[in-house]
Amino acid sequence: MIIPFLANMLDTLKLQLNDKDIEIFQPSWFFPHAHSLRNVRGFAKSVNNPTRTDFLQNKYMPRLTYLTRGGKRYLTIEFSAPKLIYGENLSEVEDTQFEELIDILQSKVRSMGVNVTSVALKKAPVLALHPSKNIKLKDGYTSSYIISELSKVNIDKRLDLAKYRFVNGKGSSLQFHTKQHSFVIYDKVADLNAPKSKAIDKDKINFQRDLFSEIKETKKYFEVIRFEIRICARSKLKVILEKLGYVGPLEFQDLFKKELCQKILYYYWTKYFLTANLFLFDIESSPQKQLANIKTVYPDMKLKQIAYLLGVRQLCLDSGGIMGLRGLISTNEWQATKKSMTVLNEAVKGTYSFVEHINQELLDFNKFTYKIN
User: Fold this and answer.
1) C-alpha 239: how far from its chain's center?
2) Cα angle at 19 between 17 and 20, to 5 degrees?
3) Is residue 189 scored above 90 in pLDDT?
4) What phi, psi does 187 have (nearest 5°)?
5) Which residues contact 242 (CB under 8 A, 6 or more apart)?
6) In this structure, are residues 102 and 95 in contact, taking their beta carbons and an 8 Å threshold?
């Protein structure tokens, strides 16, 4: 069996269509129960989600929500692009599959009782966007080890940090999040077999567990780490894209692009892991060689100050990471510590190979094929 790892890009999307662009021809399917429709002060909501039968038959279906708000009616469609095409999201999609995706989505939505044209789908505003990349690890590194190291970084206090282990402690994840967006990193292969209550990807069908079994039977040390940006608010999406130089429409056909997804992922990667935290991944462990590296950047720096810097580095490398240290010192001490980290970053000569590998994979964004048997 060949599992393709293709060079795009998008996983979950949420589209919005105006009432005039759709025809609900099976209202009994869309409103299966009277209580599914709630009407409070002009707001009404009804859902048509995948059924238990769909799950048992390994049939992936989108999630439909029909909303009435402010006298206007909308249909939102939430789906995973690779799951629509492949039935799983270990494989990825690419730009050239857009028309195929539109055809499948249109057909699936029709089977759920709603007619919508392909043109309307292409032009539908995007409410949520989840660019992602699956990276096959090398050099003996595991997802759990890398996640443990990445969790030591310093992050903005406006973000919540969540570390989580699942599947009997054999899988792990890391998430920086607010209500509007999150950066999620997790062990993708382990997550394939995780029960819904513990999985990071909660919208799975049985086929993904079958895929996990096949991987484990045929390639014992196959490891994939997944990087996923979940932008859940249209306003946040607009801000992020503007930072990256994109000022076009936020329509499906314009955002289903490798280049945009690559820029978003690399922006988050550099912001949270490379810009201010690079010294955490310095491959040089010898204190004397670190002293020499600092001296090459700051030749006039006194030994006492360098010793302080090396002490700060060691404290940050502890299991609690920078955030753990930050919680143990005063505000004034933290401000001084932040300045010392700038010097440590400037003295880095090389990083662990997993950092270089992830960085290159996100820069290249190439498709590749992995042969399981």
Assistant:
1) 18
2) 100
3) no
4) -75, 105
5) none
6) no
Domain ranges for the chain: 2-274, 284-349
Q: Residue holding tokens 């009804």? A: 46
Tell me what the mean pLDDT of segment 98-114 comes to.
Answer: 96
pLDDT greater than 70 at residue 254: yes
Instruction: Count Cβ atoms within 10 A of the Cβ of residue 303 and give its class: 0-12 exposed, 13-18 middle, 19 or more buried.
Output: exposed
**Helix H or strand E segment including 351:** none
Task: Copy the structure tokens of residue 234.
Answer: 């249209």
3-state SS assignment for residue 328: coil
334 confidence band (pLDDT: 50, 70, 90): very high
The secondary structure of residue 251, as a DSSP letter, is B
Q: Is the Cβ–Cβ distance between 183 and 268 less than 8 Å? A: yes
SS3 assignment, position 352? coil
Beta bridge partners of 181: 231
What is the separation, in whole angstroms, between the first and last Cα of the chain?
6
Q: Over the chain, what is the mean pLDDT?
A: 86
* Structure tokens belonging to residue 355: 């950092």
* DSSP secondary structure letters along 138-201: -TT--HHHHHHHHTTS---TTSEEEEEEETTTTEEEEEEE-SSEEEEEEEHHHHHTS-TTT-SS
Q: What is d(CA 175, CA 186) in angstroms, rounded to the nearest whole number? A: 8
Q: How many CB atoms lie within 10 A of CB 211?
A: 22
For the whole model, what pTM was predicted? 0.89
Query: 203: helix, coil or strand?
Result: coil
